[in-house]
Design a protein that fits this description.
GO terms for molecular function: ATP binding; ATP hydrolysis activity. One of its GO terms (cellular component) is plasma membrane. The chain has 255 residues and is of the alpha/beta class. It is 35% helix and 24% strand.
């Protein structure tokens, strides 16, 4: 018997426009807990705009986003992270001058310490063994243990993307938004990222935006196709691959 899943995220008729241009036009989709859900579509389809709206970087002009039973309309980005919704970015965002381990310890520290009500923030995190131990565990999860003492700027592009995933995991997300995690990677680095996502899929729900179709069809439990700001199809990979409208609009039957 297959595992029963529950709805974790529901996007209901979300629209976002910039002047007279609609980046999202009544887009709707549903994510179930425990799945890797890929969002694909041509350039300009609105994929990154939707990620921005979900994370709180941009407000929706219309529609609703319901996450784990919470309406996110008036929730700031940090409140969404606290609820368990976290994201990565197309462009790596790290403290490049700090060591790899220090990047992760700072991320863990920001979650476990109450900055507003305690002076414990000023205690050096190097003296807090629980924080450092968790940081080491996160580095092990993304296969960066041997690079803990290097500066982040010394890592390869692929290693930096893995480090960024560790920072996001430090928030203990229920839903991980991955915005083109393989962008700019060579073949070997892409394989490594695919393997990392497969490993993480056992413990966290993901919404994956990615242009590498081989990776998408390997990783995704379900796929939604965004064209012109609207979701035109959503289903299992085999269903999406066979959908005539999807093939015509995006997968390129005419090529």
């Amino acid at each position: 018997m297959s595992e029963r899943r529950t709805t974790l995220l529901e996007v209901r008729d979300v629209s976002k426009h910039f002047g007279g241009i609609y980046a999202l036009n009544e887009a709707s989709l549903v994510l179930e807990s425990g799945e890797v859900h890929a969002l694909i579509g041509p350039n300009g389809a609105g994929k990154t705009t939707l990620i921005h709206v979900l994370s709180g970087a941009l407000p929706a002009d219309a529609g609703q986003v319901i996450f784990d039973g919470n309406d996110l309309a008036r929730r700031a980005m940090h409140e969404r992270v606290a609820l368990g919704l976290a994201r990565s970015y197309q462009i790596t965002n790290l403290f490049s001058r700090l060591k790899v381990l220090d990047n992760v310890t700072m991320a863990v520290q920001s979650r476990v310490r109450d900055w507003g009500s305690s002076f414990s923030f000023w205690k050096p995190f190097s003296l807090d063994s629980a924080i450092v131990d968790e940081a080491h565990d996160l580095l092990a999860q993304v296969s960066l243990t041997g690079l803990a003492g290097r500066r982040a700027s010394q890592l390869s592009h692929g290693e930096q993307r893995c480090l960024e995933v560790a920072l996001v995991l430090a928030t203990k997300p229920k839903l991980l938004l991955l915005d083109e995690p393989m962008a700019g990677m060579g073949p070997e680095e892409s394989v490594r990222m695919v393997e990392l996502i497969e490993h993480l899929a056992r413990r966290v729900t993901m919404l994956l935006v990615e242009h590498d179709m081989d990776a998408v069809f390997r990783l995704a439990d379900r796929i939604s196709v965004l064209v012109g700001g609207r979701v035109i199809a959503s289903g299992e990979p085999a269903v999406i691959r066979a959908d005539h409208e999807v093939r015509r609009a995006y997968l390129g039957d005419a090529e």
